[in-house]
Amino acid sequence: MQRRPTARARPSRTAGSSSLRLVVGLGNPGKGYAGHRHNIGFMALQAIAEAHGVGPFRAKFQGEIADGRIREHRVLALKPLTYMNESGRSIAAAMAFYKIEPADVVVLHDELDLAAGKLRVKRGGGHSGHNGLRSIHAHIGTDYLRVRFGIGHPGDKDQVTGHVLNDFAKADKVWLDPMMTAVADAFPLLLDGDDGAFMNRVALAVAPMKPKADEDKGKETGAGETGSDGGGDGL
Q1: At a CB cut-off of 8 Å and minimum separation 6, what does 91 contact?
Q2: CA separation for the pair 165, 198 (Å, rounded)
Q3: Nearest to 150, CA basis, from 11, 37, 28
Q4: DSSP for 136-201?
Q5: How far apart are alpha carbons 201 and 183 in whole angstroms?
């Protein structure tokens, strides 16, 4: 009887996997933060939940959580309400309760090192100074899937805090609204493990702003490990 070779690594979930998935949107709680660039993770998670009937959200794990199904996948949607720099505590609590492994966690977050309107998916890597990711790494490690939403870099490190903790400009609506719709519609592809098809579907739906020459220091390759969100509470 011939034995099949054992896979060494799993970059993403195989199509048709029905494991419980924890999908986390990062952001800061409160109406004052709702429209901030740093809260695009919250925005994306809300769009996904509404599009697929996941909900209602209820208070638990120092956040708000909702459960449901996206096609054949059982999904938990979590918004940590700990403020960005303590997001890992909420995620770790939910993972422990439901016995979820890091490989079954998807985190939606803002990314300075991608031009506004760009989206990339990756697993593992550093936190690039993002305090939400820094907290997650401290609590659960790095073996989780990330959906990185480009918000662009202001071009000056001293302007980063004001950039991420400020509302999207009116001009950003050109790509922001179509991106949220496309991410929600195409999300089943990501859960199926087809990261490439998911990214392609979103890219086709979005007409991103043309980035400044220094806006995308990560070269939009998905590596993007050189940026900083400036640190500080709430970032």
Answers
A1: 22, 24, 61, 78, 80, 105, 107, 136, 139, 140
A2: 28
A3: 37
A4: HHHHH-S-SEEEEEE----SSGGGHHHHHTSBPPGGGHHHHHHHHHHHHHHHHHHHTT-HHHHHHH
A5: 8
Known active-site residue 153? no
**C-alpha to C-alpha distance for 57 and 232, rounded to whole angstroms:** 29
Q: What is the pLDDT of residue 207?
A: 65
Terminal alpha carbon distance of the chain: 55
Tokens for 112, please give them. Answer: 């300075």
How far apart, in whole angstroms, are the C-alpha atoms of residue 125 and residue 227? Answer: 13
CATH H superfamily, domain 21-205 = Peptidyl-tRNA hydrolase (3.40.50.1470)
Res 19: pLDDT = 81
C-beta separation of 77 from 54 below 8 A:
yes
Closest listed residue to residue 29, CA positions, set 69, 80, 74: 80
Crossing angle, helix 195-205 and helix 173-191, to 10 degrees?
A: 160
Count CB atoms within 10 A of the CB of residue 98.
14
Dist. CA 224–CA 119, nearest whole Å: 12
Mean pLDDT by 10 residues, the chain (235 residues): 43 53 98 97 98 98 98 97 97 98 97 95 91 97 97 94 96 95 98 97 77 46 37 45
User: Kind and range of the H or E element at 135?
Assistant: helix 131-140
C-beta separation of 73 from 118 below 8 A: no
pLDDT confidence of residue 15: 39
| Catalytic position from the list 38, 127, 153, 163 | 38
**Is 20 strand, coil or helix?**
coil
